[in-house]
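Appendix B, example 12.
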Amino acid sequence: MAKVIYSWEDIARLTRTLVVQLRGQRFDALLAITRGGMIPGCLVSEWLDIRNVMTAAVMFYTAIETRMDVPRFLQFPSDALLVDKRILIVDDVWDSGKTAVAVSERVRAAGGVPTVAVIDFKPTANRFPGHRPDVFAQETDAWVVYPWEPAEEEAE
């Protein structure tokens, strides 16, 4: 599998690609998915002048990497902040789609209208037929390393 290592300049360029696609749409709030969506979410919020920025922390694995069938929301805005609102959900990558779909469904269940924007969309890894991000900067099947991720030697 190919490996792509992004620079900060790459992230700025790719995030601008998202912004161009999103311009002209009205959003009441931006919901950044932790942790990968926080930096792109901040950039998008600045460039689109979205001041209401919230976070969603979602976990699908326990500390011992045991798969969980349902998402565990460690932190999420209350329904009152989402009802009747157009919510821009931002993350770094749509791989299996599990996180974005879970967050979108929770926004929808609260009465909000979700739009999902990601830097990278991996269509061959997508496990949700009929679902895909509303906006993405590029499609890839590569293993992507973002500049905010620790280098392998730093992580140990």
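The chain has one domain: 3-145. The chain is about 25% helix and 35% strand.
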